[in-house]
Design goal:
heterodimer; A: 14 helices; globular; disordered C terminus; B: mainly alpha; two-stranded antiparallel ribbon; two-stranded antiparallel sheet; 17 helices; 6 strands; transport (chain B); cell membrane (chain B); membrane (chain B); transmembrane (chain B)
Chain lengths: ~300, ~350
């Protein structure tokens, strides 16, 4: 698993190598190199994974004819920024963007409003069926909209809600609820009860305690749940594809695929739209990245 | 958050006072707090699930192809399942015939194969690469945070966008073929021929989700104390022994969780093959997964689509069951996140209290 650089060269070049135990000299050789080898390896790795997206960014900055011209060049032969202004004034695109914002935003709001009370209650009180409730929530996380899409479509069809934001919002909210409940449950459970009791003694009502003490303390968990839900709802494709048949009500993920079809090939617009579509998630992701890693590891490290 | 918890004195949960005092009078009102969650899950997840199962046992209402008369549908028995599993398509006179090639019904076993093939191959590569990247990210070096954030960005990007991007990369005169040309390999019809199309999907999926796998594995690696490795080194363990005898067993649970999540994800993969290769390639359905087949079938008949989606659901549930039952029951008892933390913490309480 480890490194190529930990070879003997380092130890032989060092004067004390014959005296020092082998392990020590090996480490010192590695030590000398690790300061630059690891960052370089890490950067190379990151670059490899980001390369396709760099291609995407560069392609959004050149005219469509240049995108498909062969042989492909790395840097644009001709730079063009106007695609972005074209996209951002295109009514089709603005409608998709609007749908994505409304749907992802509302789903997130619902998830938070619904999951906080449930997580708080299950973390604080033992009640009959508590474990069953938590397991039920967990099991629903194993379901995906893709496997249930027929039933979901049928249901919203019966309620006459196909092509409505509400249907897509509720669907997204439900499928992300499990994660939010679980992560918040953990955060609430990790706050000692004494904190709450102290607030109680100081004359805080139960709701006041939740609002003034518990919520601020669990803020990292809430932020993680918010952003995770937002990203998932923003990226959702299958349900939106089946439910939102109206062109103007499609979200970005479904909409932007229509820039390049068998009939039209607006590569520049596709890539510019894709860049606009990923900016919110990448920015939000950068905010929670630490919490996400922390959230997955925190408990066990302690 | 965790800092607050650790800095405060550990709560003394004495049996007498314990949960009961807070519970008194809270029970009924408390249920109200859980109700919205239950309602949402019931309406959006449970109802469609049950509904789909019921529909899968019903006949399509519509024009009967045999008689040209409108038929109401009604109970179909296991007809819809036979349609998929035994490849029986409706024929004139209410009888059945083997599904002719080209129909959606005839694609079932191909789709099942493609789905399982994608699952095994992508998860295999994602574990391997994920382990490797996780060990790199687990070391401390300058700029580690930046690398970690950068490597995980692809995971946050919509699959639809990724798929279009790879569609561009895999174009005949695109970047992939140019790179292949650089090492002297003839250009491939990536999205046209069956096997290249399948591998195009696999490459794109591995590229996109390996970082997520690495993140989950990294979470496990960070639990391992460096003492353990030092002890192994003193005992003269080789790198490989250290990895197989120490690292792997110690990250078993998070690794299993990661594999379970990814497996369930790939089993229902839709957007990547649907957008990247349009489910096509070669014979026309070389990358049609079960989920793509379900969506295609929706337009052709709800009830048989329900039967198919129920089959997909059963497959996923079965795989999940296998994982939980044979590979580590901990997956359900200790899901990723805090439940594990909570338990461990409470278990530790008495010890901490005695120590004081």
């Amino acid at each position: 698993m480890s490194t190529v650089t930990e070879t003997g060269t380092g130890s032989t070049s060092r004067g004390n190598s014959s005296v020092a135990p082998q392990g020590g000299s090996r480490r010192s050789g590695w030590q000398r190199h690790r300061s630059w080898v690891l960052p370089v390896a890490g950067a190379a790795l990151a670059l490899v994974f980001l390369a396709p997206y760099i291609v995407m960014l560069l392609n959004s900055l050149r005219p469509s004819s240049d995108v498909v011209q062969t042989p492909p060049t790395f840097f644009p032969r001709e730079w063009q920024l106007s695609t972005y202004s074209q996209i951002l004034t295109d009514e089709r695109f603005l409608n998709w963007l609007k749908t994505s914002v409304i749907v992802a935003g509302s789903s997130t709001l619902i998830v938070i409003l619904v999951s906080i009370p449930a997580a708080y209650y299950t973390a604080r009180f033992r009640f009959p069926g508590r474990m069953a409730f938590l397991l039920l929530v967990l099991v629903t996380q194993m379901f995906s909209p893709t496997a249930l899409v027929v039933g979901i479509y049928r249901e919203w069809f019966n309620f006459n809600m196909v092509n409505t934001y509400a249907a897509l919002i509720l669907t997204n909210a439900a499928f992300n609820l499990a994660f939010a409940v679980w992560i918040l449950h953990g955060f609430f459970a990790s706050i000692p009860k004494e904190v709450e009791e102290a607030a109680n003694l100081d004359g805080c009502s139960r709701f006041g305690t939740l609002r003034r003490v518990m919520l601020p303390l669990t803020m990292p968990g809430i932020v993680t749940a918010v952003i995770f839900t937002f990203i998932a709802a923003w990226n959702e494709y299958v349900v939106a594809l089946t439910l939102m048949l109206d062109e103007s009500k499609k979200p970005l993920t479904v909409g932007i695929t229509s820039y390049v079809t068998g009939y039209e090939q607006h590569w520049d617009q596709l890539f510019a739209a894709a860049i606009v579509a990923i900016v919110p998630v990448v920015v939000l992701f950068a905010v929670i990245e630490k919490h996400l890693v922390g959230g997955l590891t925190a408990g066990s490290v302690k | 958050m965790s800092t607050t918890a650790t800095q405060t004195a550990p709560p003394t949960r004495s049996r007498k006072r314990g949960p009961k005092s807070l519970n008194a009078g809270q029970g009924r009102r408390g249920v109200l707090l859980v109700t919205p969650t239950l309602i949402l899950l019931a309406v959006v997840i449970m109802y469609p699930l049950v509904r789909a199962v019921i529909m899968s046992f019903q006949k399509d209402s519509g024009l009967d192809p045999a008689t040209g008369m409108f038929s109401e549908g009604g109970f179909a028995g296991t007809q819809n399942y036979q349609h998929w599993l035994l490849q029986q398509c409706a024929a004139a006179g209410g009888t059945t015939q083997p599904c002719p090639p080209g129909t959606l019904g005839s694609q079932f076993y191909d789709a099942l194969f493609v789905t399982l093939f994608f699952t095994v191959v992508t998860v295999f590569f994602e574990i391997g690469l994920g382990l490797w990247f996780a060990t790199i990210m687990n070391r401390t070096f300058k700029g580690r945070g930046l690398v970690r954030a950068a490597i995980l960005i692809p995971w946050a990007i919509p699959t639809a966008v990724t798929a279009k991007l790879w569609f561009f990369i895999f174009a005949y005169e695109g970047i992939a073929n140019k790179l292949l040309g650089g090492v002297g390999i003839k250009p491939l019809l990536w999205t046209g021929d069956a096997w290249p199309a399948r591998f195009a999907v696999i490459i794109a999926d591995v590229w996109k989700t390996t970082p997520f796998m690495a993140l989950l594995i990294l979470a496990g690696l960070q639990l391992i104390s460096s003492d353990v490795y030092e002890a192994a080194q003193i005992d003269g363990a080789s790198k490989w022994q250290t990895f197989t005898r120490i690292t792997l067993p110690l990250i078993k649970v998070p690794l299993m969780v990661a594999i379970l999540f990814r497996t369930l994800d790939v089993l229902r993969i839709y957007d990547l093959p649907a957008i990247l290769t349009n489910g096509g390639g070669g014979s026309g359905h070389a990358t049609t997964t079960l989920s793509i087949l379900v969506i295609n079938q929706i337009r052709a008949g709800f009830n048989s689509a329900s039967a198919l989606s129920t089959l997909v659901f059963l497959l996923i549930a079965f795989v999940a069951f296998i994982f939980v039952r044979f590979l580590g029951a901990d997956v359900v008892q200790r899901p990723p996140g805090k439940e594990a933390a909570k338990r461990r913490w409470f278990r530790r309480q008495p010890v901490a209290a005695e120590g004081e």
